Amino acid sequence: MKIFGVVGYKNAGKTGLMERLVTEITGRGFRVSTLKHAHHSFDVDHPGKDSYRHRDAGAHQVLLSSRTRWALMTELHDAREASLEDLLARLDPVDLVLVEGYKRDRHPKVEAYRAETGNPLIAPDDDTVRAIASDAPLDVRQPVFDLNDTKAIADFILSEVGL
Q1: I need a labelling partner for 138 at 20 to 30 A (CA). Which of 3, 42, 77, 127 fits?
Q2: Under CATH, which number does the domain 2-42+81-161 receive?
Q3: pLDDT by residue (tens digit) across 136-151?
Q4: Cα angle vertex 7, ends 6, 12, to 5°?
């Protein structure tokens, strides 16, 4: 599987870019999966639902299934957070995995950047950032794309990974 990341600080446009890239790249006939890192606790389950009650009772894993999708939830308790490599190994094979976050890992990335946030760029100090998707002109060594030019960003990513 080919892997390419989207990184950036909060409110830089990462999730919107990810969404547009998935639509663009799957529209070209490629199979795409996504993996997103959350810096906080999250839950895909809700109190009162059967699967939540199973986890709350102490189940290590709960697999929830229907005819349209399935989800496997694993409670880490005091175990270490799974690495990107560990999580990628759990995905079914696809043409491309787009990873949101994991900015310190060594896979190739595009940085989403919005000037109005006032955050610094990640790219100048990180050689894994291959390009920047920005809402403002930038003077950097990497190629800079308009943040909303999804087609050009998708072309760049697919070229970088050899698809």
Answers
A1: 3
A2: 3.40.50.300
A3: 999 999 999 999 999 9
A4: 105
